[in-house]
Amino acid sequence: MQLDNDLVSIQEMRQAVQRAKEAQQAYLKFSQQQVDEIVKKVADAAYAKSYELAEMAVEETGMGVIEHKKIKNEVASRDVYESIANEKTVGIINEDKNNKVVEIAYPYGVIAAIIPTTNPTSTAIFKTLIALKTKNAIVVSPHPYAVKCTAEALKICSEAAVEAGAPDGLIGWISKPTMDATSQLMKHQDVALILATGGGGLVKAAYSSGKPAYGVGPGNVPAYIEKTAKVDKAVKMIIDSKTFDNGTICATEQALIVDRNIKEMAVRELKNNGAYFLNADEKQQLEKVITLAPGKLNPKIVGRSAEVIAEMAGISVPADTRLLIAEETKIGKNIPFSIEKLAPIFPLYIVNDKEEAKKVCVDLLNLGGRGHSLALHTNNDQVAREFALIMPVSRMLVNTLSSVGAVGGTTGLKPSLTLGCGSFGGNITSDNLTAKHLINIKRMAYGIKDIDIPKPGRTCSRKGNLQNENEVDQIVAEVIEKMKPKGEIDPKLVSEMVNEVIKNYQTI
């Protein structure tokens, strides 16, 4: 029964957190050298199994391409390791001798990590490496449709870590995940931080858990080919990127925008690179398959090939079809082609100039990709800078594959499988998440400036003592002097009134 599954899953989660907490307490004593040796062993072990894990992921989820998932596993292990290998994450990590400030790193503790079905092994490897590098423990909740491959990736990492001297239990996971167990994991009293990669509902739950959390939003990435671009090269990059692992990376291009005066060249190159253009009837057929309700992507098309998706829609396409394209003019939740589609499907928007392109890009981002990424192909650096300044995205990829470039594969960005969307997307960071996001820094600061604190002046404080007789007599004399006619004033009465006022003033 479902209740039994929930109870088993919750109990397993609690045990994993308890073991992780105990292991992390022991791990706190490890030196930077010991930590680095463990991280390297784990990265090497995961890299060595990149292909096997890719095979498992495709077989279990039915999504993506084995050769492409292998590359993602390699980026998550080798590239991520190389990017953090020399970072200081233990003890004193920085010292400003001029200002006499010493920075000391300390970990969060136990990290809860949520893994998506689209990138189940690579994301698990990536999150494990950055957690271990920063002396944290990690407990993973895999996606229910990718449990076996995610657990195998974590098992490989765990065995390598223990063999290198890490405390057993430092890497934990739920082998029978349920929504209830995942929810309780994020709220567990011994969990200090959440790394949530997944749908909008999951990210919202992470931010609502009461714990510090890194969540990432969706990526409805526009790809604009500006009139000065080298069209043939741009189109090849875009199609290679869009079809990489059948579009399962969140930074993959989702809509194609082309200047009108290069439309014919772009269409020709798209066809030359395996794109199939849908006619009006075929477009309507595919729209029914893309979404099940307005704005709700059909999960059955995620990570599937163009041929499989076309067959689902009852459309006959050539055997070498890599991408399905339809011209589009509208944007909205009720326009299936305009939403984020984690599959090789493109809407094609034709614009008159860069100003119209800006509007289309912003409308697409506002529909569901604010803060994520934008791809631009141009030979005009001024245009690139203009877009970079005004687009509501955290990363803009210029003249490269957006899917691979955003995660650091073809750019100088930090290699990462979790891409922040910043305040544009309601996230706490706009960075590519890496090890530095999983440490706290405490600071020891010496005094370097002298300051003189002035002594209190002779002004009356609100609770000052004014009740000595000389002060009262002086006040009474001043009052009598100012009042007319003098003969009618009773000094004793005035004195009593002054004393009463002072008494009330002192009690305020």
Automatic annotation (TrEMBL):
Keyword field contains Oxidoreductase: yes
A single MF term (Gene Ontology): acetaldehyde dehydrogenase (acetylating) activity
Pfam families cross-referenced by the UniProt entry: Aldedh
Documented EC number(s): 1.2.1.10
Enzyme class: oxidoreductase
CDD domains per record: ALDH_F20_ACDH
Superkingdom: Bacteria
Keywords on record: Oxidoreductase
Residues annotated as domain Aldehyde dehydrogenase: 11-272
Keyword Oxidoreductase attached: yes
PANTHER family (UniProt xref): ALDEHYDE DEHYDROGENASE-RELATED (PTHR11699)
Stated name of the protein: Acetaldehyde dehydrogenase (Acetylating)
Higher taxonomy: Bacteria, Bacillati, Bacillota, Bacilli, Bacillales
